[in-house]
Amino acid sequence: AQDFLSHPCGRKFRIATHLAPPMIQLDATKCANQLCPPEAFGEDGGLTYEFIQHKLLPQLIQQCKDAGAANPTVEFDWYLPAAERTSATSAVNMVCNGGFAEKDVQSSHKATNLTCPNANPSAASYYKGPSPAGTCAGIGDPSCVSPGPDMVTGAVHVVAERLLQLQFSMPYYAVSQITVVRPDTSFSIADGILNVFRCFRLDLYVGIAVEMLIIWFMFMVVESTVNDDIIDGWGSYVDTFYWVFSGIFGGADKAPITIGGKIIFCAHAFFAVIIIATYTGSVAAFFTAQAAVPTVTGFESLQKGAFSVAVRGPIWDTTEEPPPYLGILAAGDSPEEENPSIQFKLLQSLMRASSSTKFTMVMTRRMESRAADGVTALEPAAGVDPCTLEGAQLGAYDQVMCGTKVSDSAPDTLIFDTPSVIYELNKRKNATGECGLVTVGTTFSPTGFGVGFPARTTFQVAFDSAILNLTTRGVMDELVERYQIATRHSMCTFADANGGLQMTTSEMLGLFIITGAFIVIALVHGGVERFTFTAKARAALREEEQRALVIDVPKEDEDHGKGGPIAVPGEDVDAKEAEADRLKALAEAEEKAQEE
């Protein structure tokens, strides 16, 4: 094992680089002839770049020193694919085909033989190992030992299919897939206000209003002139309408006294009971039906084909027999030669495993969007709407976000690597202040990112030892925290705590607003009425008290002098009678104020 640890020593490894933020991110304009220098990566070259270049490389060098290697130097050069740099399959194919040319990134993805041409010793591209350190300065350099790259990394999944093509190190990062959807923005404040009324149609509300007007008119004719409980004068109209209105809710304001009035009251009460019972059942059914509307709750929601999912991969001729791929092809903007992504292959394997599983797919060339030139990446920014940007070539993220704004066949969802999704959605949230997309459900299909080598490599043991040493020391955990790509770091996650089975305050907002409005109106009117009544009552009370203090003397006599009113009562005035008169005057004043 110690001998294997020294195998990378004194070697230069040319890396086929899968450009996949946040694992690998760089400024491609600083790369020359596909070779990217350290300044192209900057300070945030991505989790994979930092792990491989700044953590794994020093560990390999240390292992060489510990093994006593004559030349402990190990070097890494990073090369981008000639085309489709954001496709992991392109980078993998560079190693399989043993070259850096554009033709080397393509694969015959319909072929059943998945072995790499580079695995054939008689092939011109047959791998002869890495070049000595300090040599092989670029593509075409005659000092290079092998014509193609020595390894591949990025967001490269270690899966069974690729194990038939390459020899992989142990995974350095565990990864899974996650589902992304547009957030449901259909519910608004107006919906919350109107929800409590939507179980009845407008024509039914009109019918209820007509019934109330008829009953009101009949009560005015039959009851208002004989029923002492109804206020006299113009107030009778309001009082009678309140009687009818309260009756529709099952709370009668007063009782009729005529036979005709009692018959009318019974008819109105019967109508009210039926309406109340019907409304109670209808509002429950209405909200239950709303909760039962199919929505995407996770990856399981996609497996019957009810919702379309965007994945990177090729389109195909749906009339071909047998079809080259399974599933329903809803739409797509990718060519038939497009390299299939790991997500596309996952869906195909699930459909092969179960005949009841059927995915509706929208095929796309890339995850990111580009400007009309097809080269410039469209970065999220406040005030920039990719859905309306003329000539924009939308990637999977924006196709889902824009939805029917751009196409009737736009995908409902997408599935992709969890760290990439969280990084992208958080970046959009920070740039625009909004979550135009959200993750939904739990993660699924766990795999791992690893380093791939040509078949029959002798370097796997040394790389495995270095990766194991670093991961057990928590190096990867530190990088994950730095790049904020764990599920706990997601800013845009859909979580329905009620599961759609319970009504929320927002859904019943109308009930609270209407009730609150009545309470406020009552408080305001009550305050005004109270103030007005108190002022009138006090004025009337003062007037009656003055009158109670004035005593008429009917005639002249020796005890009281001249007849007429005097301001101060004499000794013969009974105090009890004066108090009784005062209380009576107060009661009359209050009654008079109420009538006014």
Automatic annotation (TrEMBL):
Lineage: superkingdom: Eukaryota
TM stretches of this protein: 204-222, 234-252, 264-287, 508-528
InterPro entries, per the entry: Ionotropic_Glu_rcpt, Iontro_rcpt_C
Ionotropic glutamate receptor C-terminal domain span: 203-516
Places the protein is found: Membrane
Region listing for Disordered, in residue ranges: 551-576
Cellular component terms per the entry's GO annotation: membrane
SUPFAM superfamilies the UniProt entry points to: Periplasmic binding protein-like II, Voltage-gated potassium channels
Keyword list, A-Z: Glycoprotein, Ion channel, Ion transport, Ligand-gated ion channel, Membrane, Receptor, Transmembrane, Transmembrane helix, Transport
Molecular function terms from GO: ligand-gated monoatomic ion channel activity
Topology in membrane: Multi-pass membrane protein
One family name in Pfam for this protein: Lig_chan
Protein name, UniProt field: Ionotropic glutamate receptor C-terminal domain-containing protein
Native species: Hemiselmis andersenii
